[in-house]
Amino acid sequence: MFLKGFQDKFKVKSGLKYLREALENPPQTVARDQGITSIGCIVDVDNFQNAEVFYELIDDYSLRPNAIKIIGYKREYDKNSPYAIQIFSDKDLGWKGVIENGYVLEFLGREYDMLINYYEEDNLMMKLLSVKTSARLKVGFGTLDPKINDLILNTDLANFKMFKSELKKYLKVLKEL
What we know:
The chain is of the alpha/beta class. It has helices at residues 2-24, 56-60, 102-108, 124-132, 160-173; strands at 39-44, 68-73, 86-88, 111-118, 134-141, 151-153.
């Protein structure tokens, strides 16, 4: 038990080191055309339980039904409990910032036109996933490190309608829609 806690502490330290290095280096550019055809969403399910509302973006942006991929973060979860979306947690942290979860690997295996970081909390796991995800445009909240997101919206996490309308407004300004 003592060794497990000691090992977890070093995994966190290793993950923080990886995150620091990743934020210092410029992100890889994703060679995709202008416009939004695929969206990835990282959602803090502990603070925003209704993650399925992101599927509304399919109709709003006239996307294919499988164009949105949502993954949720929960501090602790029961693997036997059914969730509407795929979930990862702190238990999935491995060495050198690797997230050891099949859903995360599947999420990272795709390139996105836009990544929505729908969380306000300064959390290592969600930041690691945000940094590792290949996306042309990353959108999030102002409470996070500005190096993570390209477009920062200052809306309330609980008010998804406001977030959605602000996002659409700025995507039109950027000529993405």
